[in-house]
Fold each of these.
Amino acid sequence: MALRRLAGRALHRTPAPPPPQPLAQISPNSRGYLLLLRFSASSSAPPHFMVDYLVSTCGLSPATAAKAAPRFAHLSSPARPDAVLAFFRSKGLTRAQVRAVVSFYPPLLLSDVDRTIAPKFRAVRALGLTRAEAARLFALYPPALTWGVHTNLLPRLLFWLDLLGSTRLLMKWLARTWLLRYSVHVLLQNLATIRGHGVPEARLAATVRIKPSLIMQTPAKLQALVDRVEACGVPRGSGMYVWALFALHSVSERAFRAKRDAVMRGTGCTEEEFLAMFRRAPCFVFMSAEMLRRKAEFLKDAVGCGADYIVRNPVMFTLSLGKRMLPRCRAVEILKARGVDVGKERLVNIVRLSEARFVERYIMKYRELAPELLEQYPTDCRKGSSNSQGD
């Protein structure tokens, strides 16, 4: 459907837009002009007019403009660059976006608008992107303007739109990473590799939506990542397999070893026990080694967790130290100081209670007997924002 709409739109030529306005004028006495003379050529000849054009009209730095100028040596007038800039402006690109595009590849200014640039904008709009989204897409990933429409641009965009499920997510990830960097062939090969290790399609798609860079790597690097996961003993087909991939993709081997050592020192567990913890809850390794050490010590010394309990329940590491564990322990201490019998429930179970249950059972129930609880227990915790791996 999108390709049919593209073919229909391709019949309509874009009207000639007005000429571009210069971004700024360069004074002959300015530092920028002196830099132009320095970087434009080694001879005594004056710099080509395109050096000044790239700076004043396109916003490039003098050094970048001088480096690019030889590509325009054959030009006797700025007519073609004017046409390209005018087209960009007619498509909604801001001055900053034009600067980003031209800085990436100045020879784009030599393009034939109707033959090479306009079809790419029509193709993107045919996929359902708005005018502003199309402009932002090319500003975020200028290499796309150098691709063939049917050989690279459409296949890559269609792949990600199908996998992510919406233009909103497409634009979100384009703003965060060079989403379109890898060919569809490489991406499909990586998906097949992960599927081949027993990851269900739905879980794989959900994970890639959270972390597209998982498949944005060479097949060799992905295989090395798979080898790391299997070295940790995570079985293929396990519900944790894709999360182990997700975790180790974000944590280098060196960082993983540092976190392993921190947990082993903090809890007294063995390396095999640490790996067992990783297999149960891979994402706890997103925390820094220092935070893991602090949590391990707190769980042992303050909460009373033995090493065996922590090994069986590594999810304890994902509970916030500053917003959950510490405030709850302080609340229990306040109640005990007031003579309140909090029952036989172990502190570790109190820490693991849902936020709503804890507030109801230990804060609101005793707020008149111990009104300081409402001051000591953080407001954001009472609202339920206490699950954080960062502290």
Amino acid sequence: MKMKDTNTTTIKGKKVHYRIRKWSGVVWLFLEVNLLGGTIFGFPALFKILPQYGIYGGSSHCVSELLNMTESDNRQLSCEGYQTRHYQNALTLGIILFEIPSVVIGPAIDRFGCRFVKLIAIVFHIIGWLALALVAPGRDSLLYVHTAFSSLSGIIILLTAYTSSDYFSKPRAFVSALFAGACTSATLWYSIFQKLIDARKITLQQLSYIWMSFGILMLISSFIFLDWRFSILNLPYQFNTKLEKKALPPNTIADDGELEKLKWYARIFQRKGVWHYLTSPLYLLVILFLSVLLLPGIFLAVTWYPWVYYITKQDITLTNQYTFAFNLSTSAAIIICPLNGFLLGFKADRSKKQKLFNISLMQTVSWLINIVACFVCMFAQKKMIIPALVINCIARATIVSGSQAVVATFFPSEYIGTLTGVMWTAVGVITTIQYGLVQLTNDIPRSWRAWVIILSLHKPKIYMIFIE
């Protein structure tokens, strides 16, 4: 009897220890994602810092560029415009590489585990921030190396954090949405860089080395809070699959031992592979919504600085203040995203109808907010700056947290990496539209043309095809 009590106490003690370790991991990974996960979207804050270091500011660059332009183009494009265009291209490259490689990273996480993939991210992280530390006139192209590799590192950090939410059962939607909020609010760090550099308290090179040293945090979290498929140094607990077992249909065999007793062709029939979930109408709808509804926020991040610079009549100080406010506003996502995750998971374990209602409500609200955002950004007027800033923050936080919470909650944990990766790759493919649309914003008064194109993608009929 005493032996049973002792064993019961030991088991309870382990459960408490595991629970503390899991939630400690959430806090650690939250800080990690916030510091390193989605910083690329705040890169426009450096658009007026980089010229101080002469990046793409050499006279030979400007002269050769202007010689290739027509006379009408010469009147519109100065050396300053040439620099800004390079910074925008570097930003767009970073955003695309933050999303498109997910289709490879996701399956790699499912195949090798979060820890293995994150160790690779540490290498990318060091290369990316070392490149920014070494960027200088004559080494201008290192700016592209920075945005590319820091984005690759950032998306791996984010996807591994999302996957770690499967260590939980009911709080899974909340945890995944919390990481989405951390990623969205990460854009503020470049603005903090801008303020510190303008105040002459630190240099861009010093900040880059500081951020590069955060690779140590990634190394620690890889071994303490994440696991891999190799049978060495494993975590004492695994993914929590309670919700998935509840969701299984009556005829499905969930017990692996029972499944092994079946003949090989029966096992194939019983198992549902990743393609079953990749072609799920719900999954396709989530991808479509995220890909299209995230486009306004991403496009605004790329065009924000020149848009505000024109509206403020080339007032650099005021433009920098608005850009700082734009990036700082994303910190509200820390509250908005978990709230969305909580609402999405509200009573979702009781019935399928409640799940679908929660998803429909979230997607409808996101769709309406994005339509308003497109209309606001069509007008290059000072009174539209603050509304664009506020609406962008709410819209992006709502659609990102909601979509990720749906994938983390309603699909099997064994495929969570692949499903998340494919979803973000689809977003990256749509994001490539920016390369063409950015050209339509060279003349700011006529930049509304780009927003009309984006608005046209928000037609309800497109989504109804998948709903049906």
